[in-house]
Amino acid sequence: MASRHPVVPLLLLLCALLGAVGARAENAHPVETIKGPFFTLTYLGERWLRAETPDNTEAMFELRHRDGDAHALLLLGPPGPDLDQLKDHAVSAARATLEDFRLTFEADRRLGRARVAVLRFEGVAEGVAFNYYNYYWAGAEGTLQLLTLSPSREYPVMRRDMQALLDGLRITPAKGNSGESAGVPIP
User: Fold this and answer.
1) Do 121 and 101 form a contact (C-beta atoms < 8 A)?
2) Full-model pTM
3) How far is CA 85 from the centre of its chain?
4) Least CB-packed of 32, 41, 119, 168 within 10 Å?
5) What is the pLDDT of residue 146?
6) Tens digit of each residue's pLDDT (9 = 90 or more) over 46-92
7) Which string of DSSP letters, residue by residue, matches 114-155?
């Protein structure tokens, strides 16, 4: 199980406090929050810029790193597959889409009461090598995929910001729901 870096929540809290007392610099970007039907994503606005229109039409939103070449997409889907099925589907889709696909890390972790799958993989798309670092969740409310990617040449520099963004995710399932789905097969 991946452990959460203890500095990330402190940085988010510090940025929120500075913003609350008006002590931040005029050009600083505060902590941003995106609320969805069953999730909240909190991230540093100084690191990520929300795209007005996502390049991927299936994405609820897209974020672009302000200082480097990294992107994040959030995809929501209907209820259906359980977490293991969603994860297997993601790996199969990546394997079919990317040349030289290689799964480099796989784990489950808890975000509050919800279990998410963590996948990191590498592959080549349109002649460019990419690294992907993603969180997946499935529950009675639907499915969620928070996907981050960066060209492999930039990944060593972008990885911390990508992980901090992913760690800002909070699943808020309906009361009485454990945040997990029994699942149905993916067609």
Assistant:
1) yes
2) 0.78
3) 18
4) 32
5) 98
6) 999 999 888 888 889 999 999 999 999 999 999 989 999 999 999 99
7) EEEEEEEEEEEETTEEEEEEEEEEEETTEEEEEEEEEETTTH
Residue in this structure with the two tokens 């606005």, named with its chain if needed: 45
d(CA 29, CA 11): 13
C-alpha closest to that of 121 among 101, 148, 135: 101
Q: Nearest-CA neighbor of 4 among 80, 131, 109?
A: 109
Q: Which long-range contacts (CB under 8 A, 24 or more apart) does 94-101 make?
A: 94/121, 94/123, 94/132, 97/123, 97/125, 98/123, 98/124, 98/125, 98/130, 99/123, 99/124, 99/125, 100/124, 100/129
Read off φ and ψ for residue 183, nearest 5 degrees: 90, 150
Both structure tokens of 49: 């810029």
3-class DSSP state of 67? coil
**Per-residue tokens: 126:** 């349109």
Which is higher by pLDDT, 151 or 25? 151
- Per-residue pLDDT at 182: 43
Look at 55-69, 122-136, 138-152 and tell me which has the smallest mean pLDDT.
55-69
Return d(Cα 164, Cα 36) in angstroms, integer.
Answer: 19
Determine the residue type at 176: G
Residue 24 has pLDDT above 60, yes or no: no
Q: Where does residue 156 fall: left (phi above 0), alpha (psi -120 to 50 degrees), or beta otherwise?
A: alpha
Please give the DSSP secondary-structure letter assigned to residue 5: P
Cα separation of 151 and 137, whole Å?
A: 25
